[in-house]
Amino acid sequence: MKLLARALRLCEFGRQASSRRLVAGRGCVGPRRGCCAPIQVVGPRADLLPSGACITGRIMRPDDANVAGNVHGGTILKMIEEAGAIISTRHCNSQNGERCVAALARVERTDFLSPMCIGEVAHVSAEITYTSKHSVEVQVNVMSENILTGAKKLTNKATLWYVPLSLKNVDKVLEVPPVVYSRQEQEEEGRKRYEAQKLERMETKWRNGDIVQPVLNPEPNTVSYSQSSLIHLVGPSDCTLHGFVHGGVTMKLMDEVAGIVAARHCKTNIVTASVDAINFHDKIRKGCVITISGRMTFTSNKSMEIEVLVDADPVVDSSQKRYRAASAFFTYVSLSQEGRSLPVPQLVPETEDEKKRFEEGKGRYLQMKAKRQGHTEPQP
User: Fold this and answer.
1) Count of H helices and E strands in the chain?
2) What amino acid positions are annotated as catalytic residues?
3) What are residue 160's DSSP bridge partners?
4) What stretch of H or E contains 225?
5) Which phi and psi (to 5°) does residue 243 adopt?
6) Looking only at Cα atoms, what is the longest distance across the chain?
7) Do 196 and 223 have their domain in common?
8) Residue 254 sits in a domain of what CATH number?
9) pLDDT for 120-169, tens place per residue?
C-alpha cells in the first residue's frame, strides 16, 4: 500500500507539472491510464515530425504479472497498442472531414529487451513517423521506472500500422492527412517500410489457412502435447465505441495462449522474449466468438517459437462464415527462480507439416540471430 500511495503521489505531481507545460484542453488524463497529451516541439529537433507525440503511463499491479512477478508480455503489448491508437486517431481527425477511428493493421517485430516487474511504472511514448494515403506508421517506446530509486530502462520498441475507418461505416477506409517531413530521406525510408510490410501482410494472409486440431493422449515434447486454445466471447468491454475489438485486447489474449503453450512444454517460469510481426487480417466485431490457438513450431537450446492463430466466428450472423482474424509468432524463454535462462526441452515434430514448420522456424531463428550479430546472412 505504501508503494502504491507513493506512485499515486508521483503521478499527481506529474499531471500538475504537465498541465503547466502543455496546451490546455488538448491532453487527456484518466485514473488508470495516466496522461496522454501532445508535446510541443521546441528547439532544433529535426528528427521529430510536427504531428506531436503521445505519452501514457501507469504503475504495474499484481494482476498484470505472472506468479514470478514479471509483467505479462500481453499487458505491455496492450499498452503499446493503446498509445498507438490514440496518436493515430488524433492525427487522422486533425483536419476537417469525415470523422474516423484508427484500427490496428499490423505490428512489426517487438523485442522484450528487459523484464518489467510489479510496482514499476511503465512509460509508453508513441510518435507518427510515416503516413501513406490510407495508413499511419507509429513508433512506440516503452520505459520502465523504479519509483523508489528513479532508475529507468528501455524495455520495448515497436512499430505499428493503423488504417482510419469511417465512423459512419467502419468498412470504409478513409484517406490519412499527410505529414510534413523535415528531411526528404524520412519520407523515402518510410515508403520503403510501408511497401515491405504491405507485401509481408498479404503473404501471411494467404499461407495461414490451416487450423490447430486437438490430439488425444499426445506424447511429451510433441507439438500436440503443449498446443492450447482459448475461446472468448467478444463483449462491449473488449471493443471500441464503434463495435470492433481493440487490437491490444487481441494481442493480450494471443500472448496468454502462447504463454500457456510455453509453460506446458517446459514446465518452468516463462517470459515473452519477442513477437514476430502480428498481422490483423480482418476486424473482429462485438458478439463474435474468437478462438485463439497456439502451437509450438521450433525450439533452440534456450528459446521456443510459438505460432498463434486467431479465428473469429460471427455466431449472431448466420450469413458470415468463420474467418482468420490475426496471426503471429511469439518467442519465449524459460527462467529459473533466480531469473537465469534455462535449457528448453527439444521439440519432437511428428507429421510432415510439423517438420516443415520446424524448419521454417529454424530459418527465422537463424536469420534473427544473424541480424543480432551484425551479419546479413545466417552463419552455419
Assistant:
1) 6, 14
2) 66, 255
3) 107, 138
4) helix 223-226
5) 95, 10
6) 65
7) no
8) 3.10.129.10
9) 999 999 999 999 999 999 999 999 999 999 999 999 999 999 999 999 98
